[in-house]
Amino acid sequence: MKVRKTAFLLAACISVLVLTGCDNEKQKIFEQAAADLEQGSYEYALQEYTESVNNEVNLPMSYRGMGIANLRLGNYEAAADNFTSALNCDKVGKSLRKDLYTYRATACFLAGLYEDAMADCQTLAQDYTMDADCYFLTGRVALAMDAYDEAGTNFEQAYGEDSTYDRAIQIYEVYLEQDMEADGTRYLEAALTAEPKGADDRCDRGRVYYYMEDYANARKELTEAANEGSTEALLLLGTVYMAQNDYSNARAMYQQFVNLALDGETSEEAGTAAKGYNGLALCDLAEGNYDAALENISSGISFAENEEMQSLLFNEVVAYEKKLDFATALQKVQEYLEIYPDDKEASKEMAFLKTRVG
Asked: Is the pTM of this model over 0.85?
């Protein structure tokens, strides 16, 4: 009996260890998904969060992670479904529920499901304390639905809660998308009434002046910001010079940015070089140096993540088209659309290229 009892206890202990090991492995997958999401590795994060859902690990957060990954990958309807699944989970706290409604409204808006997006915005207004982001999102949805007064009211609330350069630019860009530039410009003008307090503020002011097409003041603010150590100002200066067709000075700014990025002490700093390489490629494209553009795009891709990767890959398509290498351009745009299927401009590009390839 003693032998049997010992064997039974040993078997029980082994079972506990196996189950504990499985649970630890499942938790590691969930934690890796969170790390990949934060680093912008959205495809990996999506796979890992999907596995976490299958493993039933922290279901509300796993569904949320899937939704954010799909949102960043342009899979907007799938993202909305993920956020709905998260909302339908048990034990979803009020703070997380507000977060999920906000994300779902964003996904529905980007999918063109404006009524669904507005329904979530109304839920936010009725059941939760509104903040600047919620007001801005509601204004954006309302404007898309041609509810101009409602949009204006929400944008005023958003700017009242968050009177920053970034918020002013956000509102301006939304109005600009609807060919209502004058309505947005007043927010830019309001932002410029604040006194700059350092390089970051001067950089923001330079960006505001750029949007207003006041390039002289944009250069002035950005040059001062760059002299105070802002590397972002170099990128923006490149953009300002590009807008004036001054490719020589634009190239100098982008190259300086690349050099500083590559001289950085961390891999994160080096990773920003992709933005500079993309700028150099734009200069090359503007000047008809398509092979040079492809070289800079290739260099940028080796560092790029997220939005910069998307821009570089699209510019690669453009470069091959400009070289009249339509077959390669078509191949590249097909690969691009597998990653970014909702890019309408790329879809039009593919349709054009198909007419050029026999």
From this structure: no
Are the CB atoms for 260 and 233 separated by under 8 Å?
A: no
CA dist list (Å): 286 to 28, 78, 219, 293 = 47, 38, 21, 9
89: amino acid identity, one letter: C
Instruction: Kindly tell me the burial class for residue 119, based on how many C-beta atoms sit within 10 Å of its own C-beta (0-12, 13-18, 19 or more).
Output: middle
CA-based nearest residue to 310, from 349, 340, 330, 266: 340
Taking the C-alpha atoms of residue 304 and residue 301, their distance in angstroms, rounded to an integer, is 5
Give the residue carrying structure tokens 């304390």. Answer: 129
Q: What is the mean pLDDT of the chain?
A: 91
Using CA atoms, how far apart are residues 118 and 151, in angstroms rounded to an integer? 11
Q: What is the DSSP letter of 178?
A: T
| Token output for 58 | 């922290």
Query: What band does 344 get if pLDDT is binned at 50, 70 and 90?
Result: confident
Task: Give the tokens for residue 358.
Answer: 């026999």
271: nearest Cα among 295, 239, 305, 238: 305
- Selection from 18, 41, 5, 45 nearest residue 29 by Cα: 45
Rounded to whole angstroms, the Cα distance separating 297 from 282 reads 9
Instruction: Give the span between the Cα atoms of 239 and 247, in whole angstroms.
Output: 10
For residues 276 and 285, the answer to whether their CB atoms sit within 8 Å is no
| Tokens found for residue 253 | 């700014």
258 CB-contact burial (10 Å; exposed 0-12 / middle 13-18 / buried 19+): buried
* CA 329 vs CA 263, 278, 345: distances in Å: 33, 18, 14
Task: Give the residue, 9 or 91, on which the prediction is more confident.
Answer: 91
